Each structure stands twice: as C-alpha cells, then as structure tokens.
Amino acid sequence: MSAHRVVVAGGGIGGLTAALSLGRRGFDVTVLERSSQFGEIGAGLQLAPNATRVLKSFGLLGDVLDVGVLPDRLVLADAATHEELTTVDVRRFDELFGGPYIVAHRGDVLAILLRACMAEPTIELLTGKAVVAVSEPDKGVVVAECSDGSTYAGNALVGADGLRSTVRTLVDRSEPICSGYVAYRGAVPTETVAARSGSRDVVAYIGHGLHFVQYPLRGGSFYNQVAVFRSERYRRGEAEWGTPDELDAAFAATSEKIRTALQAIDRSVNWPMYDRDPLPRWTHGRTVLLGDAAHPMLQYLAQGACQAIQDADCLGYSLADAVAAGRDVVDGFARYQQHRVGPASRTQRSARLWGDMWHSDGLVEILRNAYLRERDPDDLRHVAPFYALAETCSHSTQGRPSRAEPSPA
Ligand SMILES: Cc1cc2nc3c(=O)[nH]c(=O)nc-3n(C[C@H](O)[C@H](O)[C@H](O)COP(=O)(O)OP(=O)(O)OC[C@H]3O[C@@H](n4cnc5c(N)ncnc54)[C@H](O)[C@@H]3O)c2cc1C
Predict the structure, then answer these.
(1) Would you state the pLDDT for residue 358?
(2) Pick from 18, 292, 302, 396: most CB atoms within 10 A?
(3) Which of 39-43, 167-171, 305-309 has the lowest mean pLDDT?
(4) C-alpha closest to that of 158 among 171, 175, 148
C-alpha cells in the first residue's frame, strides 16, 4: 500500500470532487460508491461562486459552462401575485467573487467530475460498494468494509456518503432532523412547461409554507422546477405525508401560472427535507467527514453541493500540505476542520432561517416584504459571506478576493 492512500466512501458530487482534489495532489484514491453506477437525479443544481471558483481552479469551469446556463438574476417573487420583491444581478459575480453563478443539470456536473476522475491514474472508481463498517486494525491504517465482504485499506478515509452517512456514526449517532417540508422537482424539456418565468433568471416564488423555483438548463432546452411545501399531514403525525394531492392542496392559493407550471412536475417521487444540527468535529481517528455526511442542510440557500465542493478543495490542500511537511496525512484534518467547520455550520443555520423567512406569514411576512421591496439590488451583504473568498481558504483556489464586503451570517 502506498503511504498516501485515501479511501473515499460515496461517489456523489462531494466524493468525486474530493477524489479529484486528492488524486491531483498525488494521493492514491479509491472511491467506493454504493450504487451500481455513478449518477445523479434528473434535476438542476445552482452553483454559486464559492463552488465555481474551485471548479475553475481544477480547470473544469469551461466544461460546466458548456452544459450550464449563466443566469442574469436571482429573483424573489410573491407566489400569489408574482410581484418581484427583490432581485440580485449575478452577471458581475465572476468579477466580484472570483467565480460566476451557474445553473446546470446535476447529471452533467457529475459526469464532468467523473470524466476528470477517470483521467487521473491515481484515482480508482468502484461501484456496487456499500461501506458498512470502518475500523483501524493496525497503526496508521484505516479499513472500509463493504456489504459484499470486500475491504479497502488506506491511511485516511473520507466519509462522503451523504445525509444518512454510515461513516458519520463514528462521530455522531443522532438521526437527521425532518423539517416537515417536502420537495417535488425535476428538469423537463422546456416546451413541456406551459407556464415559465421566462428569461435567464432563477426565480423563487415564495408564499405561506411553500415556494416554487424555476430556471433554465442546458442552454435553455430544459427547464428545472422545484416545488416545496410544509405538510399538514406531517404536522398531524400521519404516516403518509407529502403526497401529490397534498402538493396540489398546498399550492391551491398560488397564482394560476404556478399551478399550471406545477402540472409538468414529476409526481412519482418526492424528497422530504432533512438537515442536522452543526457538528463541532468531523473527524474520528483516520476518518473525516465531508459534504452532506458532515453538514446536511436545508436546500433554501442552494449551498449543500457548493459547500461540499469547497470541503473537497480544502481537504486536498490540507492533507497535501501535511504530507509535504513530512507529517502524517491525518495531521491535515485539523486545518481542514479549522477552515471548514465554521463556514459550513453557519450555512446550515442560515439555511433554516432563510426557509423561515421565505415561508412566513402574518407580521413577519409584512416586515419581510417591506424590507425586500426597499432593498438596494446592489446590496450583497446577505450572500457575500457564503460566496466570498475566505482569507484562510485562499491556499489553492484561484479566485480574486471579493470586492463585496463580507459580514458574518
Ligand atoms: C431539492 C434540493 C435542491 C438542492 N439544490 C441545490 C443547489 O441548487 N445547489 C447546491 O449546492 N445544493 C443543492 N442541494 C443540496 C445538494 O444536493 C447536496 O448538498 C449534495 O448533493 C451533497 O453532496 P454529497 O456528495 O455530500 O452527498 P450525496 O449527493 O448524497 O452523495 C452521497 C453518495 O454516497 C453514496 N453512498 C451513500 N451511502 C453509502 C455507503 N454506505 N457506501 C458507499 N456509498 C454510499 C450515495 O449513493 C451517493 O452517491 C439541494 C438539495 C435538495 C434536496
């Protein structure tokens, strides 16, 4: 076994980006993916500058731009009246934050990462490998055991196995927290969406206990739609909740345009929304967590995958620097945690608040709308903390420092 072998459990966006970040820095990497093939669901993904900056540094931004769309604006609108409450012009984000705002099909992004990993002789990609246990049988060695009985040894192990991570149980045995909200989503051919918000905007229509997101994908030939609502049946403790009839009931008070657009959404599968409380520590011996395994968050800030990509970049340079200094590879965990736990935890907490703000009613809604209507579109204080280049993390990401003023979230 090479002295710098890393086993990655999970081949989603976080796991593959981690493999690339480590493999390109000279580590021998084995990715163990539970599914029979690497893949993502057929829906869109928003990639903010904190992620596109990393993809740029990996030389993958051009590939992502080829399959993605550069939106003009992020728009918050009222779900009943369509009144635009506030907008953020994202066209200057590359200049401001060192990376553009891109929307792309998840499958396309994963395929780009997969191709890049396959091009690295240092990276081994294995499917049908569900990690069921992790142990440290000998000094300096960590072993992943898979459900088929096979074992894979390394000097470090990365748990990138998502919300219901098996690896995380080494660090934390709590269950994910259910928000009582559920999402229906999917990317469909644009011509099948009778009611579109139009243009190149990412539009979120917000209302009481619900929101509806639309944006174009693949040069505008596809359209992504996400419908999210609070389930009354969940609140009443019913076992079956978030069903398509509840979706229609929840959106009954939204505009006709939204109700029409909803008809194009796939009702065969839904995603109950879970997160977890922030963890102060992501490591256990030679094992470290990354992405949703470390910090699953509600998706309202569209940051889960972006944070996973940032984790992967930071893990790569932290471990590489430890090795370059002649230290054990796992000595790099401390720096990784120091750089990433704070920002990711803040994003987890902010995503909950963001959802509460979007879904509010009564006095909070009145105050929210009054604030949003008055907001200067150039005031980026609410997004800068997530997108700006943190001084401490500037090691390998090539972005220019932000000219927007970051403030704590
Ligand atoms: C409705 C919705 C919209 C979202 N929109 C955005 C957005 O616009 N932008 C954004 O940045 N984020 C968004 N997110 C969040 C984003 O999808 C996640 O944060 C991101 O996918 C996490 O990546 P990951 O690789 O950490 O985990 P996952 O994507 O969950 O990948 C984990 C991988 O590990 C594998 N696995 C699981 N268990 C094992 C095991 N025991 N052994 C081996 N393999 C295993 C799984 O098969 C999977 O391939 C959204 C989420 C939702 C629900």
Answers:
(1) 97
(2) 18
(3) 39-43
(4) 171
Of 259, 264, 300, nearest to 76 (Cα)?
A: 300
Mutate-to-test residue for ligand 1 from 31, 33, 117, 287, highest number of ligand atoms within 8 A of CB: 33
Confidence bin at 193 (pLDDT 50/70/90): confident
pLDDT of residue 398: 35
CA atoms of 371 and 203, how far apart (whole Å): 18
Beta carbons within 8 Å of 71's beta carbon, 6+ residues apart: 90, 101, 102, 103, 200, 201, 202, 215, 216
- Name all residues whose Cβ lies below 6 A of ligand 1: 9-15, 32-35, 45-46, 129-131, 160-163, 166, 183, 185, 226, 271, 291-292, 299, 302-306, 308
CA–CA distances in Å: residue 402 to residues 92, 201, 230, 383: 11, 23, 36, 12
Which residues are bridge partners to 384 per DSSP?
none
Q: Average of pLDDT values for 37-65?
A: 96
The number of the ligand 1 atom at minimal distance from the alpha carbon of 165 is: 38
- Residue 284 and residue 182: Cα distance in Å, rounded? 32
Pairwise CA distance, residues 221 & 108, whole Å: 14
Average pLDDT rounded to a whole number, residues 78-91: 95
Determine the pLDDT at residue 199: 79
Which strands sit side by side in the sheet containing 142-146, from one edge to the other? 131-135, 142-146, 151-154
| Per-residue pLDDT tens over the stretch 148-166 | 999 999 999 999 999 999 9
